[in-house]
Structure formats: C-alpha cells, structure tokens
Amino acid sequence: MQPATLLAKVWDEHLVRSHPEEPDLLYVDLHLVHEVTSPQAFDSLRVGGRTVRRPELTLATIDHGVPTTDRHLGITDPLSKIQIDALVRNCADFGVTLFGLDDPRSGIVHVIGPEQGLTQPGLLITCGDSHTSTHGAFGALAFGIGTSEVEHVLATQTLPLHRPQSMAISIDGELPAGVTAKDVILGIIARIGTDGGIGRVIEYRGSTVEALSMEGRMTVCNMSIEAGARAGMIAPDDTTFAYLEGRPYAPRGIEWERALDAWRRLPTDSGAQFEHELAMAAADFEPYVSWGTNPGQTVPITGKAPDPLTGDDPSEREAIARALKYMDLEPGTPITEIRLDRVFLGSCTNARIEDLRAAAAIVAGRKVAPTVGAMVVPGSGLVKLQAESEGLDLIFKDAGFEWRDAGCSMCLAMNPDVLAPGERCASTSNRNFEGRQGQGGRTHLVSPVMAAAAAIAGHFVDVRNWS
Amino acid sequence: MSPVDIIVGTMAPLPRANVDTDQIMPKQFLKRIERTGYGEFLFWDWRQADPDFVTNRSEYRGASILVTGANFGSGSSREHAPWGLADWGFRAVVAPSFADIFRNNCYKIGLLPVELSEKEIAWLIELAESDPSAEVTIDLDVQTVSTEGFEARFEIDGYTKWRLLNGLDDIGLTMRHAEAISEYEASRATYRPALS
Ligand code: SF4
Q: What ipTM, to 2 d.p.?
C-alpha cells in the first residue's frame, strides 16, 4: 500500500461513491446541529417532503442565543425564543436528539461533542458552524457547512465534496512557560495569514503537538478556520484514547478494542507526501495578542501596534490603517499599554475545564482591576459543574469575575452578553472581527492565562513574568 | 435554484481584502428563521457607519456584480451572507479568492463566485469607480468575464458548472445514489457512535 496521510485515510474510508468527473460523495458519521443555522434546513425538508435519514447520527444543542444568567426565567429575547422553539419543534418532528436548555449536558456544540465521547478518531463530522474544525483534534475530519449543506446531510447523511489539499504544519520542541495552545495557533495564523489555509486541511504534527492535552489540541484545531483552512487534524494517540475511554458515547468492551485497532492505523504513514509543508520551532512562540480586526493581525505581547507605513502594498497599508482606526490604537502603541474595559473567558476555543483551571491559577487570591468587568462562561453545563466541584467558581468570584451559565455568550454576542460601542475586551474566543462582540466593540484575542492576567492588571501583561 | 447562465450587469466596487461574513451579514440578523428578506441587512454595520459605503450610493444601487478583495467571505459559515448578497440583487461576486465555506454556500444558492487575478480585479474596480454604469458580462458556459477592452477567463470545476447552468438541486442529484448510500451503511464499522 502507498503511504497515506491521516486526511487521505479518513477521506477514503468515507467514500460512498467516486467518479472522475464529479465530486466524491462522502458519508457523514456525526452531524451536529444548533439553533441558528438549522431552521431553514428543516423547513426545506418539510417543503420537499423529506425526512432526516439517520436521526441517530444527529445531535442538536442550543448554544448561540442562550442567556448565561437567570436561565429559569426562560428566553426573554423574542427572536431568540422563536429560533430556539423552532429547534425544539424540529427535533421533536424529525426524531433528532436534543440536549435542551435544562440539560446539564448542553453547551457549546464543539465542547459537548468531545465531552460526550461522540467525537472520535476517524469520523467524518459536519455542523452548520465553521468551528467544527475543533473536532479534528481527535483525528476526525470535521468541517463547517452552510445551511443548504445542513439540509443535504439531514436528508442523505452524505455530502458531495472535492478533495481538499493537504498541508502539514510541524512544530517541534518544548513550548516556553506561559506559552499555550492558543498562542501556537495565533502564532501560526500570524505567520500564514487568514487565507493561508484556503482549500486545505492542515495536519498539525511534531513533538510540540503530541505533547498537547486534548483540550490544547482542540484549541489549535478550532482556529484552523481562522487560517482559512477547511479543517485541522491531529493524529490520534494514547492521549486521545485516554480522553475518550469511558465517555458516554465511546465504544465499550469488544467494540472499544476494535475501535482502538482501527484508530491506531489512522496516523499519517511515514513517507506519505503532503502537498504543502511548514515547519516551526516551539521555542519561537510567544504569548500573542491580536491588535486588529482579523486574527492574522496579531503580534507577540512584547510587540506594538503596527505602523500602516510598514504594509507591503497600498491595500495592506489601508487595511492596517482601517483596523487601527476601528480599534482606536495609535501606530506604535506597546501592547502592554493597552487598557481594557472587559475580559471574556469563554467560547469553543477556550472554555474547557483545563482553560478554566489555568486561568484560575492566575487569578487565585487576586482582584480584578476596578476598571475591568470580567466574566467566565464555561463551555458546557458539565464543564461548569466540574469547575464548581473543584472550587474554581469561588476563585473567580472572589477575584471579582462573574460566573455564568454555559453558551457561546460574548464570543458572538447573539445573546444579552454584548460589548458596548467603544468597549475594549480581552477575549479567549477566536474572532476579533469588527462588531463581533457587539457593534463598535473592540476585541483582542488572547489565551486564557493572558486574559486572566490582563483582568487583574487592567491592561495586557506578559504572563511569562507573572509571579 | 434558478439556472445561472449569462450575467450582464453593472458592478459595485468594494476594494477590501478579508471581508468576513460577520460584516456581510451581522449576527443581529441571524435570529430570523426565514431564508429570504436579508437584502436590507447586507453590510449593515458598515452602511450605518459610512453614508458613502458602496451599497449606500445610488449610482451602485442596481449593480448585480460585487467586485472585491481577496479571502472574501472568511469566518463564519452563515449562509445568511450569500442569502443577503443575492437578496440585495447581486448575482455574482468577483474576487481574487474566496473562503471555502462561503464559496460552497454560494454554489448551493446560485450566486456565482468568480475568481480573477489581483491585477484583473484592480482593473475592474477602477472601471467600476470611474464609471458606475459600465456593464460587464459574465458567461459561465465559456467561463469569461468581459467588458469593453477587457476579457478574463476564470476556473470552475465542470460538475459545479453543469449544476449551476441547469439549476439543479444537489439533494436530488445525491438521491440518485441512494443505493450506494445504503450499501455503505451496511458495511459501516459497528464501533462508530450513535445516539440511540
Ligand atoms: S463559541 Fe463562538 S465560535 Fe464557538 S460556536 Fe459559539 S459562537 Fe461560534
């Protein structure tokens, strides 16, 4: 057999049909659904007289529009209520399992799939959400799709797709203290740009990646889409298997053994060729902070907001100037002098238990700066319960953080958690687009420990010097 | 989906790279559960902030071709972005590159993403800025974009082109392979997860 990449193996294993002049038809193992991108798909199914082909391979949750306080009061935003009620009705009508609002297993769709053991190596996973790339951390091929494709998967459990290109990003060595998985992916995006991965699936490899926990791997794969990539993948290994074993939907007994046999064959064979390759050294990574309005506009904490004059061409110079204006930053401002109004610890990038533990270790025994409003929004109901059982909630609350219920929250501010115009926020989420966290709001992307330290200091600080 | 064939129309220039779907269709409009009616919300925040934003200017109101910068449609998978562009009246978006999910979403609804070189885009943007009434023809069948003194060829895979030219629904096409899907399911590994 020809040596093959992880991507090629997973792809080929899902081929329902291939024809030289048509896209491949691929089978979808797991389809995740949320309230925002699914109502039109279910409606079209109804209009077309179609059913959900495999409801048992479909899981729905409510995450984008849910409030993170006073949940017992129900959904007060009338539009969100209509949307959430529509999902509840659609799941009932089409026989789809829904982790509803009162279910502790509910939470951000990309947090609960892995948490439940549904996300497994070698699966093909889709969801009407671009951060589906998160699930690639398990060696699954997982990517976001639009609503028409959601309808297609619901109706046929398949998708017609052209084979993407493969790209290996290898990172070797030990990450310096204070440099996290979030910094790895921010550093990669700063290097290859927000379009560096277009048309590609990135496989992250090398000793640095192998040393990451599953939480860290999910953070890296999560933001593959911010590099423009179709998906991110990491080869499954003992870390993956240890994470999965015993989770509610993980295989058991003889099936677990069978699965392990198959999963161990998934990693890229030695000698397999990637169409694109990039090597980086762990020692070169630093804690990063985004200064601009896309995730590629990122510099190390020791850096400064750039001068538009440093842009390569007129359009780049204009883009820098536009971003600086939106962010209300002068060229050359040291990142450590940027003062914050808000700190948001949450999102499918960084609201898992390990993220909360790391942030809690920074804030323990300290107080949030009086000028800063800070909140923690756990990624799922179960993450919240786990954190509370470890006393992390008390550490955060003692320090002056608000301790909220799970959901997407201020990552995209579709619920009541919104930045006011002009407010500046250190956020552990994934997008610093204009208005993302609220019209006129200003977002700086950072790791959980950097966000925690900034909350205490009131401005960005280099967490490597934190004592 | 209605067939896409020859698009003849004027252009709206948006000379910016990395226009993300949060800008094309801001989140406050994603709570609607309809598939239509998004046109009035297109580029909402930018239109509010800038009276001279391209879709605010009367001379570009009837444009059916958006000409813009690289990596258009990056970010969120929201199909609401192409829905908004189509509902506004755009039938094609011409850019040096597109984000993958956005491009797929466009293909699904019959909005044509056309990739040209940076140089060709710069030429078209200059024309659109100097003469908003300049007409451009996009011919999907022969894969060209042309106007007086300009002709450029673009790439598209043969299958997608055929589907767009004939206005065919992907689900219907896939259903022709129902037997192959059932066969695949019968041989699928038993350790794969299921919810019931
Ligand atoms: S947390 Fe943010 S990025 Fe993740 S699914 Fe929710 S809205 Fe999307």
A: 0.97
